[in-house]
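Posting this for the archive.
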Amino acid sequence: MLACAELVVVAREDRSVVTTLRAQSPLALVPRRGVTGASRSDAVVHLVGSASTPLAGDDVTLTVTVGAGAHLTLTGVAAAVALPGGRSADRAARPSRTVLRCSVGDGGSLTYLPEPTVVTGRAHHETVLDVVLAPTAALRARDLLVAGRTGERPGRCRGTVRVTECSAAGNGAAGNGAAPGRPLLVQTQEIGDPLLDASPAHLAGHRVLGTEVLVGPAREQVPATCGDGWSLSPLPGRGALATAVAHDAVTAARRLAEAVRAAS
């Protein structure tokens, strides 16, 4: 299944407003409305799976633009379960792929908090998070990967994260003709390789790998630190990367929260 979606948020007076909202199955974008939505200055949009996904052969791309001074919180409502292919040999041979491309303008922010992704047996899944930030834009992006269901050998998952700060020439309109500047983070992680997952330098036998990218608007250096099952590493220029491992998603999320508190 091939699908594309687009989300645009702009600042109007003291609020962030969704101006473009387009999606195709298996992805639905649901903005928060009513009293709860009206009480917040940021725009809140929920990612909702409208069909079983990601399934081998699925290719889903979401493009997000956050204008200067606008603020967007993008959240999930349920865990994503990466599944193997069906009867078609060609479909089963192709991995599922989810791509999120974002640009955030000056003074804007993006908070991306999806629910965990469970990589089931024989699944092969790829994810890409590509974010371009203006010099004073902020980002918080979390990822929780669960290596298989309980008692199950996991499939394979490869996730790439690229966070780039655009040049001063693109000030105020990241992603709209601005020339890319310096990379703040380029990282690829994999789960599902038994030798790699058992390595002390990777999962060390744990089932869950969690990461959280934190890039604030100010150029403050975050000292490297670590705790029980988590670590915090500074990024060049500004921001930090929190990493946690655990045997379950709840513990991994709690450890990531500890690392985020250490960064504040």
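The two ends are 41 Å apart (CA to CA). Confidence is low (pLDDT under 50) at residues 169-178.
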